[in-house]
Amino acid sequence: MTTSDAISTGALLTMAAIAAVMLIQYLKLQDIWQLLLDCKTSTRWAQIQEVENKELRSALRAEKAHVEQLRRKLELLQALIPAA
């Protein structure tokens, strides 16, 4: 094997090693990218649930106020009915 063959073989092995490292990095980045997409989806669902929870809490407050109003009306009506 001549010197130029040895250099060519060394360069080829170096390029193969670089390609292997790049492939490993690509696979790691692909996993990170998928993790980011999953996180984005989870964040979106969390925001949707937060809005729904706010709406439900608001509806619950309105229902409680309505129940309290009906209780007061019932008390007034019971006060108007003579005791038997």
Please provide a written account of the structure.
- The chain is rod-shaped, with a radius of gyration of 36 Å.
- It has one helix at 3-80.
- With 84 residues, it is mostly helical.
Main sheet characteristics: none
- Gap between N and C termini, in Å? 120 Å
Please mark out the parts with pLDDT under 50 across 5 or more consecutive residues, or reply none.
none
Coarse shape? rod-shaped
| Count of helical stretches | 1
Please compute the radius of gyration using only Cα atoms. 36 Å
The average pLDDT is 94
What share of the residues does DSSP label as strand, in percent?
Answer: under 5%
Could you give the count of β-strands? 0
Helix content: over 70%
Helix and strand composition category = mainly alpha
The sequence of SSEs as H and E is H
Which keywords apply here?
84 residues; mainly alpha; 93% helix; rod-shaped
Note the topology.
Blueprint: H1 3-80
Condensed summary:
This protein has 84 residues and is mainly α. The protein is 93% helix and 0% strand. The protein has one helix at 3-80.
